[in-house]
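Dear U.,

Please find below the material for section 3 of the report. The protein was modelled together with magnesium ion; I have listed the sequence and SMILES used, followed by the predicted complex structure.
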Amino acid sequence: MARRVARSASPQVERGPAPKARTSRPATQSPGRSRLESHLRSLSKLQAHVRVEAEIGSGNCSVVLLGKDRSGQEVAVKAISLKAAKTLGTDEQRIWGEVQVMREVQHPNLAHLLDVMASWEPLPLVKAEPPFLCIIMEYLAHAEALSKRIREASLGPVERIVLQLASALARLHRSDIVHRDVWAENILIDRQDKVTLLDFGCAERLQKPATNNKLNLPYMSPESAAGRPHDVGDDAWALGLLITEMVTGRFMADRLGRVDMSGAEVPSRNILVAPNPFLHLHTPVALICHKLLQLRRQSV
Ligand SMILES: Nc1ncnc2c1ncn2[C@@H]1O[C@H](COP(=O)(O)OP(=O)(O)OP(=O)(O)O)[C@@H](O)[C@H]1O
Ligand SMILES: [Mg+2]
């Protein structure tokens, strides 16, 4: 699903060295080929291993597909078009960085990487041009976006969801990684209320220059808006907003009066279907959220 993104106030950063591929064969760079393209040449070809069956979701430069591997197992394939990414000015380091984060960090509440492949041919159901970097993940069948549950006011206990998300984020943070794209579209929840955090496309390493200057505006932390380096607090801010959404059923970001985002109006979004479905929970969190709901155009 396309999301609202905006350039953060962060200054353009120097590009660091391209990440090392952890492929079985070393990628040698040929003249005229980008380093990422050279990495791609060392990967197995998607078509030899996976049959594409349907589209599951799409973003700015990627499409997520449902496929079946040779054993018949369902897999999710996030196909990132290098050409589309280049057109959008996406840093190649960021694209490969998504793979590296998934390789590095495993946790029951983080999307599980199965393999990384390449496609040099057009992909069924995908308009963008090849080549594609294909991230093969465990397919989360019977799971739906957290946003859908909030919209339908069909969430289970919020505390259980928050604990799983906090645990997943703590795992990332322990590896000095900040997710930077925590919001209800990047979280899937299954019938047993098991939560999975997806989409490491905006993830950054602590103490390293940022590879991405486009962030999901409504969830951007005040520190990011002020151009400060990314930090774990960026995820904490987004999680806090998400908690208010879960507890109140309302989109909160447009109520915070973000005077720190000069020239960038935080778009409003109506996610509530039932009136205040969760406010009957008289927990401290619900009370804080209730107060937040009363905020009108004040500075944060
Ligand atoms: N492993 C998975 N199993 C089931 N559905 C998935 C899986 N991974 C992604 N999806 C679906 O595809 C959608 C898009 O995935 P994701 O958020 O990773 O990509 P994106 O937002 O298009 O990426 P980007 O912002 O990096 O361009 C998700 O919101 C989810 O609905
Ligand atoms: Mg996403």
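For the text of the report, you could mention the following: Residues 7-26 have pLDDT under 50 and may be disordered.

Regards,
Y.
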